[in-house]
Amino acid sequence: QVQLVESGGGLVRPGESLRLSCVASGFTFWRYEMSWYRQAPGKERELVALINGHGETYADSVKGRFTISRDNAKNTLYLQMRFLKPEDTAIYYCRWTNTWGQGTQVTVSS
User: I want to staple 50 with a disulfide (CB 3.0 to 4.6 A). Which of 26, 30, 35, 54 is the partner?
Assistant: First the structure.
């Protein structure tokens, strides 16, 4: 059974950092592209970053601030978020093919 479990969200002030984690199970993690999405209130879910054998891709809104990475030995996907802004407030989801995690809330507010 495939599972994706996110963690690491929270409430932070603008300019601070957070690292999200997504622990995967039930499939051969290292073989697959993985991605992070987010959904803000009243908005559609959007791609934040993805990682595959060709490298990493980022949404323009997070380039230079967020870094996606993976530890294949731990079946874990990460999203390091720096210089957070209020507009980064959203539920962040880990995705593998058409499977989603439950999400983790990130709130950026002073």
Answer: 35
Cβ-based burial of 75 (10 A; exposed 0-12, middle 13-18, buried ≥19): middle
What is d(CA 6, CA 78) in angstroms, rounded to the nearest whole number? 9
For strand 104-108 and strand 10-12, is the pairing parallel, antiparallel, or unpaired? parallel
Cα of 54 vs its chain's centroid, Å: 18
pLDDT at 75: 97
Cα–Cα distance for residue pair 85/93, rounded to 1 Å = 18
pLDDT, residue 108, reads 98
Give the DSSP H/E element, type plus range, for residue 93.
strand 90-96
